[in-house]
UniProtKB/TrEMBL annotation:
GO terms for cellular component: cytoplasm. The lineage of its organism: Bacteria, Pseudomonadati, Myxococcota, Myxococcia, Myxococcales. One of its GO terms (biological process) is rRNA base methylation. Keywords: Cytoplasm, Methyltransferase, rRNA processing, S-adenosyl-L-methionine, Transferase. It comes from Pseudomyxococcus hansupus. This is 16S rRNA (uracil(1498)-N(3))-methyltransferase. Specifically methylates the N3 position of the uracil ring of uridine 1498 (m3U1498) in 16S rRNA. Acts on the fully assembled 30S ribosomal subunit.
Length: 166
């Protein structure tokens, strides 16, 4: 998170949900990394880098299934393009209509990826799996790569002087 949160803030993401998953270390949600003051400081670093002032909202959810089943629609709305980067998928991101979507939500798994139950549940709730390419990336690499790709694909629908919000 020390590298991911500043990058996310500097790239204009407006909401982040850190949700527990099967391959997340059990002690992670008790660690200093998720302390509100620590998270705030990392986000501020990213905003300073980008010369932005809109602090992303950060939600922490320790239970995966209840979040997906009970909160997902309320947190992101039903009219979002929901994307699931997942190595077995063959479809490229550019084929999923990112350029015409009003809002994009990415479900980026932990290092080690999502387990089949998690991908099945995400797909059942409207997430479209796609391939990021042949390489498996760590979260700290995948997040800025994905946000950069989404931003590039969305450039056609935003005004030239208006920064893109992912």
């Amino acid at each position: 998170m020390k590298k991911v949160l500043p990058a996310v803030a500097s790239l204009g993401v407006d909401r982040i949900v850190l949700v527990n998953a099967a391959r997340v270390e059990k002690s992670y949600f008790d660690s200093k990394v998720l302390d509100a003051a620590f998270v705030h400081e990392l986000l501020i670093q990213g905003l300073e880098q980008a010369r932005d002032t809109r602090l992303p909202e950060v939600l922490v959810r320790e239970r995966f299934r209840p979040f997906v089943e009970d909160e997902l629609d309320a947190v992101f709305g039903k009219e979002t393009l929901r994307l699931l980067p997942h190595p077995p998928a063959k479809q490229p991101l550019r084929a999923l209509g990112v350029g015409t979507a009003q809002r994009v939500v990415l479900a980026i798994g932990p290092d080690g990826g999502w387990v089949p139950f998690e991908t099945d549940l995400l797909e059942a709730h409207g997430f479209h799996p796609f391939s990021l390419g042949p390489r498996i990336l760590r979260v700290e690499t995948a997040v800025p790569v994905l946000l950069g790709q989404v931003t590039l694909l969305r450039e056609d629908i935003t005004a030239p002087s208006e920064p893109t919000r992912a």
